[in-house]
Every structure is written in structure tokens, then in C-alpha cells.
Amino acid sequence: MIFVELLCRYPYVTGTSVIGIKYKDGILMAADMGGSYGSTLRYKSVERMKPIGKHSLLGASGEISDFQELLRYLDELILYDNMWDDGNSLGPKEVHSYLTRVMYNRRNKFNPLWNSLVLGGVKKGQKYLGTVVSMIGVHFEDNHVATGFGNHLARPILRDEWHENLSFEDGVKLLEKCMLVLLYRDRSAINKLQIAKITEEGTTISPPYSLKTFWGFSAFKNPTLGAEGSW
Amino acid sequence: MTKQQANWSPYDNNGGSCVAIAGADYCVIAADTRMSTGYSILTRDYSKICQLADKCVMASSGFQADVKALQKVLASRHLIYQHQHNKQMSCPAMGQLLSNTLYYKRFFPYYSFNVLGGLDNEGKGCVFTYDAVGSYERVGYSSQGSGSTLIMPFLDNQLKSPSPLLLPAVDAVTPLSESEAVDLVKTVFASCHRERHIHFVVVMLWSGTVDFVNDTCKELTKENSHGDKVEIVIVNADGIHREFMDLRKD
């Protein structure tokens, strides 16, 4: 039954951008650890990237509780896949397809999961990077993807500087460059991020760390200098 | 309690345009490869064209998630048809199926603007054009999507289609040969390209010698850097042939 009162919903605790890129050995993904409650920075240790099964890595922005719900759906999916015990396992393409269907179906029932997702992985040497753009189910795959503000600020940098067969170091540098721009310009970004890597061998999510910022611009030191009639 | 206003929409427009032109023994279907949302480009490399059957190709623009769902529904219905009838669906049959599928969701529509192209049972080119809720018509050529308002009048002028009001009905299938259509294509490309809408880069229909096409591309790309692409699919007696052409990226 569709109860209208339940359907006009708002997100409460939200995460901001996630960025993902393909590199030489697999996929690199970056996300900060902030959980905002409207304009309050309420939670500062939210892990917004999680490994899924053996071959995939999921990053999410948007409502954190909906992300946790998705993780429960995926847990069940992977469990049933393992229980077949047939030597096969769901790859990133399959997981992305599943997520797209779940998101689209919830949108059809007017009860969306308020997330934007990045799904990356490697299986049998094939790299895969896909995204579910929003809660209404638009999706695509590409060599580099981002959610939210990342689409506006990070994608242009990636279009310019991404190329095939990036080394791990170059990939991390590129992601950090994008995350720095987001840190300066996205008000919901915080300076505590993780970088996740997924290759044929498996997933590694780095411990949280900070980027070096620079605020010593002369214009910031005396902002009213030269402003006529300022008071 | 005052009535709540919706704060999200189940629809989005991911842009793009599609075109199809029917010839005596061929059909050309084309669409750009840009996917956008609002003023952002999501990707430059997304195919809006889907092969539904041996001689039947659909191009759709609009809301991508609905387009994908629609393609999946039609593909699975075609599979069932093949199991039950031991043959491929003809283009007119698929045309009817698409119409019915769209009307099925009349009260929560697929936001998908489609053109269906292919060969009919006699091997003649056929094009069917649709609105979002399934009204359809067999025509000689059509365009749908963001750029259709720019493209359609141009095609009307160049293909000199007979009035649909004439009786007895006159077929609008173009008598142009595959190579003659190339000149037309080049001009349509140039005009839509310059006047383009942000949502689509170019919509092209093709048939012609490979050399001419390549020369065209070189000439057009001379003025700008690179671009999103146009995907062009040609259906004829030999089967299905796919080509890409680069476009401006801005």
C-alpha cells in the first residue's frame, strides 16, 4: 500500500561527493567521512565506501541510512550467491545492474533510496566502473565518475587529466587534486578522507587522513583592504 | 494540515536526439552519444540505440532509466516471441508491441521518445515514430528528442515528403539512394550542429561511401577540437552496420 504521508520524504543525514576512476590495475575511489545533518556537520567518521563480495566496491552519497539499507540488501545478495557454492561469484557489472534495478523499482513505488552510488570493481582482469546517478535510477559506466558536487568540480579535472593506465601513485594524486577542490568549494566536505583501491587481488580502504590546505592568500589576510566605503 | 508539495520528481531529462530515415531497401537510425542532466554532462559515450530484433532497431531519448527499462521489457518480450513462434519479430510487429507497452503505463508513463527503424516483411525500409504514451505512425522519416524541433523541419524540406493528407496515401519513403542521402546528411549535420541545443550534439543519419563520410568528418572537425559522437546504424538486406562520427564537445 502506498501511504502518501510516508512518501514525500527528505534526506536527514547525508554524505557528499564520491569520486571513482579506473587506473592501471583496477579502480580507485575517494570519499570524505562526513555525515551532515542539514547544515550541521554531525558525524565525522562515516565510512561511505564498502567492499561488496570479492569483486566490487560501493561508494555512496546522499542519505546514510538508505546506504546502510542498501548494504543489507547487498549482504543478502552476496550471501545467496555464496550459498550456491558453484565457483561463480557476482562481479561488479552484476552488482551494478542489481543496484540500478533496486533504485529504479523504489522510484516506481514513489519510495526512493535517496542516494547516488559509485560501483567499481575488477573481475577476471576486466575493470568496471559504473554509477547510479540519483535516486530515480539513471545510470551509466565510464572511465571516471563522480556524485553530487563532484560532477561539477571533479569531472572537468578528470576529463582533462585522466588517461588510460594511470599508475597507482598518479591515480591517487589525481583523486587528491579533485578532493582538494571539493574541500575548498563544497560546504559539506570535510578534511578527513579515505581512498579505496580495488584490484584483481582484492579491496583496500586506506585509514582516514587529511589533505594539506593553504589559506595564506593576501586577500584573505585583510579582506576589506581596498574596499571603498567598507565598514 | 496543508497539502505537502513534492520535493522530488520521478522524472529527469537526460537529453539527446534520435533520427531515422527509411529508404527503398535500407533504413538509417542515428542518435547522439551525450547523456546530460540539467547543465551537466554525465557522459559523452552513451548509446541510445538498441537492436531489438534482426531487422529492427530502436533509438530513444528522454529519461534514461525509463528508456533502459523499456528496452529490457521489449527485449524480454521478443525472447518469449521467439520461443513461441520460432522466428524473429518483424519491424511492424515490434512497432505494435512498443505502442502497447508504452500505453500500458499510460498513467505513469515511460518518459521515452522513440523512433523505431528497420525493414518490413517485404524488405522495404520502415520507420515508426512514437510519443511517450504510445501513439504511433508509420512514416518515411522522423526525429525525436531535444533537437527534433530543429531537425524535423529540415528533413521535411530536404526529403520533400508528400502531404500525409493526400488520398490515396502516398508513401513517404525516400527515393534517395544510399549515396545521395550523404549530401543531405552533411547539410543536416552542419545546420543542426551550429544551431544546436545544449542537450544534443548531433543527430545523424547516414548512408554513403566510407570515403565521403570520412572526408566530411575531417572537414567538420577542422573547425573545432573533438566531440561527443553520433552513432549511426544502417539496416539493410546484408544486416546491421554501425558507424560513429566525432562531434564538438562543447
Automatic annotation (TrEMBL), chain A:
PROSITE patterns documented for this protein: PROTEASOME_BETA_1, PROTEASOME_BETA_2
Subcellular location: Cytoplasm; Nucleus
GO annotation terms (biological process): proteolysis involved in protein catabolic process
Source organism, top-level taxon: Eukaryota
Keywords in alphabetical order: Cytoplasm, Nucleus, Proteasome
Main location: cytoplasm
Coiled coil: none
A GO CC term attached to the entry: cytoplasm
Function: Non-catalytic component of the proteasome.
Family that this chain belongs to: Belongs to the peptidase T1B family.
This protein's name: Proteasome subunit beta
Automatic annotation (TrEMBL), chain B:
Keywords: Cytoplasm, Nucleus, Proteasome
Domain of life: Eukaryota
CDD domains: proteasome_beta_type_1 (cd03757)
Record localization: Cytoplasm; Nucleus
GO cellular component: cytoplasm; nucleus; proteasome core complex
PROSITE patterns, alphabetized: PROTEASOME_BETA_1 (PS00854), PROTEASOME_BETA_2 (PS51476)
Gene Ontology process terms (BP): proteolysis involved in protein catabolic process
Entry keyword annotation includes NADP: no
Reported function: Component of the proteasome, a multicatalytic proteinase complex which is characterized by its ability to cleave peptides with Arg, Phe, Tyr, Leu, and Glu adjacent to the leaving group at neutral or slightly basic pH. The proteasome has an ATP-dependent proteolytic activity.
Family the entry assigns: Belongs to the peptidase T1B family.
Binding partners and assembly: Component of the proteasome complex.
Protein name, as recorded: Proteasome subunit beta
The organism of origin for this protein: Liquidambar formosana
